[in-house]
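Structure request: Cation:proton antiporter, Mesorhizobium album.
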Amino acid sequence: MLNRRLTLAAAAFALMPAVAFAAEKSAMSSEGIFVLEVILLLLVGRGIGELLERLGQPAVMGQLLGGILLGPSLLGWLWPQAEQLVFAGDASQKSMINAIAQLGILMLLLLTGMETDLRLVRRVGRACFSISAAGVAVPFALGFVAAQFMPDNLLAAGSERVVAGLFLGTALSISSVKIVAMVVREMNFMRRDLGQVIVSSAIIEDTIGWVIIAITIGIATHGRIEAGSLAFTLAGVGAFMAFSFTLGRRIVFDAIRWTNDTFHSEYAVVTVILAIMGAMALITDLIGVHTVLGAFVAGILVGESPILSRHIEGQLRGVITALFMPVFFGVAGLSADLTVLVDPELALLTVALVAIASIGKFGGAFIGAELAGMSRSEGVAVGCGMNARGSTEVIVASIGLSIGVLSHTLFTMILTMAVITTLAMPPTLRWALGRLPVGEVEKKRLEREEIDQRGFVANLERLLVVVDEGVVGRFTAYLAGVIGAGKPTTVLHTSGESEADPGEAAHLKEIEKAAEEGREAAREVDEEPAREAPLTRRRHDDPLSAEAVAKEARKGYGMLVIGLGRAVTSKGSFSRRLNEIAGAFDGSLCLVLKPAGAGRQMPRLGPGSGKILVPVNGTAIARRGAELALSIASVTNAPVKVLYVARVARDEPRDTVSHRRREAVLKDIVALADRYGVEVETAIRSRAAAADAIARQAGRSAALIVMGVARRPGNELIFGETTSGVLQRCPCPVVLVSDARLRRDDGERESLRSGTG
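Returned structure:
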């Protein structure tokens, strides 16, 4: 496999001379050469990046190396005519590919900001602040001092040594969050305490670094340090940051939310995100600092937006990583000329720069870890982790070259240092992390988070709720508030068919109040408060149509919650209206139902109420129902009973594989309940039919039944005989949690496995 990928990478690079020869013979137009440049940068960069990733190295370095190989460092040395023809044409030709690269810088900073998790920084605590402070200060000081002793021929013409020192010091002091997070995640350390400290420290360094580099660039544009302009720049940056994280944060959230809810055209949210990035980049440009700061802060705000789903983020990430990233890093590599390192003096200076950068970053991070009270082994791991420059260094160096602060030779030296430190970081960090044991407290936390990763409720991104103004609608709104706390939720409410008398019908405000009460109750018990999420309310005077639900569903929702009066017939089937609304949604369903035999009022869940009964049978969908029930119980403090239902022969021994499997299923539910902080009672009913066992247990003490059921294929809602029997015989409300709409062949296979369906 590795040899095959190596062959593909070599073939992509070998293709370039042939294409260049053909271009020379056919007198290709400037537009054609531009397209050729993009194609070569994409193919060669992606090919080498894929190879490096297979070797445990960051793929972004392959894209940089691809540009270096296509530039004067190799191709220009072996075949200068081809390199000159394709990549070193006239100024107008270069400006075309450079425009893509400059836009790529903004796009990369937008993506970096979106990956900056400030909540992680707040959760980790004070250790990351001392690490990041020392990790920035030490290499910054060393870089600034080194610039004062550099030969004059390494400085750009007209550049002041002090300004170059500020720029070099800043360049050496920033770590690459992307590279650090990649290695920590690969080592399964992202959820470990130390892994979170390392990533959080890199996030803080990155944030501080981009503020410093923006100010440094503002100074560099004046050519020297002026007290008045520096004060104006500092004040402008301070005002911009204060506005961004207060009023600007709300503006960004509302703009993304409004676009997602209003526009019907494809990728409308992506367009608005790019417009937000451009507007904030323009603001920073107007206050005298580089546009990168605006793009980075825009990325942070966009990444924190509660309406930003993984689907939307994936669309944006796709175009950046597929086009802008390879082109930008490829162009950066084209600007480097490694042939200058043939000079022994420059080679030694490059080695010295690598040593200064590595010692400064490792030493600063290690000192910060010591000040934070961490062990020596942890300090070594932190120092190794902070030493990756990667994409961040390349961006900074490219900006310095473009504004005339760095010479081409110094730019090449910095790029060489970035490549060496980035390639050295993964193996050294793996070695350091591999020497650290897991403590007992941390082990328990990791086990809890492992359960969360596999969870259904924890991974829901957005809820769509359809309710009427009856008691079922109010109860459903409350449950949706409990389940959807911290998640964007849209409530569609209609007068509909209510079982309540007109004088008892709930007003719109009561539905809203019920949803808010559910959210507030969930927030009170949340150990780690979720980010603020909008609750959107929309009223439909006429009975809600399936078309209205389908139109809303296109905006992206993880689950549809439905609570309508008179939705269940006396035979345990569903009303036409419920079938139509549910049929308009292809994702997971949560149906809150009041069977015909249930009382007029919905239950009040709490310590003194009846139990939440959870039937399970070992399927994944049954476990999903159990998780939903536990999430409700964790907020309401209602008691929970888990009932394993299965038909078993009377003479079956207790030590069979089937019996051990049933016990394993219940043990898994108990572990899940422990994660939610809920005590559960478990029982196995194996002699009676599933519906009979559930109905008998419900008649004793159940206030609510929560079942995970498989959704059969077809236009109507069908969940099987067990579900119909429960809805016919049980005297309490029932919540059904189903999976997404299945194709017929998938549904047939699932029905063979599902007893409760």
